[in-house]
Amino acid sequence: MDNIVFAQFDMDSGCVYAWTDDGNLILIDCDAVEDAFADNMYQRSELDYLIYNDPKAYAELVWEGFPDLYLKTATDYTLLRELR
Q1: Residue 22 DSSP label
Q2: DSSP code, position 40
Q3: pTM for the whole thing?
Q4: Rounded Cα–Cα distance for residues 30 and 79 (Å)
Q5: β 25-29/4-10 pair status
Q6: Which residues on neighbouring strands pair with residue 9, listed in sequence order?
Q7: HSE, side-chain direction, 13 A CA sphere, residue 59
């Protein structure tokens, strides 16, 4: 398995470009990942935080295939109707 050495988010295309240690380029469509794995706005914002602040960690998360597990453990939210 290739290791990701560098990743960059391109706002114009909405994609993360990740380069592996053997020189390959991986293109990740962020909208497609969010549509596939994020069930609510809290999970989408968690993925957006990674995209903007740590695109390398985001690319590794998607490349390894565990964004659903990450979102279940990292996202904690309470519905507004339960706060009353």
Answers
A1: T
A2: S
A3: 0.81
A4: 26
A5: unpaired
A6: 16
A7: 24
